[in-house]
Design the sequence.
């Protein structure tokens, strides 16, 4: 499914703690854009739906709705420093034809 890097897991856990949401799952969502790319969403979820896929990566409980599963297959969620002092979450996703990894980051191979 999707892999959460240790850096992303650490930031997710810290954010949950800061917001009083320890034990909440992280919901990930993805949808196709008109140009074929993928838009991503994420947020904490305390109540999963029966239809949700739930699993764990790097100690983080994840929730994904069925419609997002194929779009997130083999993706990696990382937390990186884009520029000095500027950190953000990035999805490295071989399913996204518009994805291009930032310089110096190890990313999954892109599909042909």
Sequence:
């Amino acid at each position: 499914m999707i892999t959460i890097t240790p850096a992303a897991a650490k930031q997710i856990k810290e954010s949950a703690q800061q917001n009083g949401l320890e034990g909440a799952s992280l919901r990930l969502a993805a949808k196709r854009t008109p140009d074929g790319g993928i838009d991503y969403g994420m947020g904490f979820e305390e109540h999963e739906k029966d239809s949700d896929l739930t699993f764990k990566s790097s100690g983080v409980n994840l929730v994904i709705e069925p419609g997002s599963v194929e779009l997130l297959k083999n993706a990696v969620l990382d937390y990186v420093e884009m520029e000095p002092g500027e950190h953000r979450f990035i999805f490295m996703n071989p399913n996204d034809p518009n994805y291009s990894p930032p310089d110096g980051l190890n990313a999954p191979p892109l599909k042909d």
In short: The two ends are 20 Å apart (CA to CA). Residues 37 and 96 are 5 Å apart (CA to CA). The longest strand covers residues 25-32.
